[in-house]
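Trying the structure run again after the queue cleared.
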Amino acid sequence: MRTSTRWTIAVLVVIVALAVALWREVGSDDADGTGGGADVGAAREHRDADDPQALAGPRAKADLPPCPAPAAGPAPAALTGVTVQCAADGSRVDVGRAVAGRNVVLNLWAYWCGPCADELPAMAEYQRRMGTQVTVLTVHQDENETAALQRLSELGVRLPTLQDGRRLVAAALQVPNVMPATVVLRADGTVAQILPRSFTSADEIAAAVNPRMGVRG
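Done. Tokens:
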């Protein structure tokens, strides 16, 4: 075998070894939920590791309220048939039916998003002020459901939360690929506005969304 042939084979072996190592590293990141945080094309609702047994402890600690029950009234056409999981208990939620006939503030976020962590307590305070006039429903847009529950627990935020690692809600409503983002839904089933921005206080949220829903608070 000529020297040039030996060198060619050696280089190919090194390239294959590097490719395998990279593939294993990426696979490891996906398995623990740290490598795909900002991947818009996430294909799974949650990680394989987030089975009911693994989620039981984080769910108990987060102590989230149940997601809205199906209600009568008009629903946004774009959300008809969109079904995801409720982070509180793992039940399935038909998003269109859950928001039907309600003034809803949909807050789209992810556990790794810094501005989202700043905004969530403001959303919780806004919900406290508005009472039954408005429903704040958060939508976690990453497959790492355990991390989402842990983040909500750390923040002391108890809001109904949808687990939507596939980002079906954002796709249905054509929300820009930014987080946090807020979607204002009127009780008549119309989408009042999509706000691809962050808020720092309940007052800011009220000023931005209440006029669009025709409520005071």
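The domain at 52-213 is CATH 3.40.30.10 (Glutaredoxin). Worth checking whether this holds up in the mutant runs.
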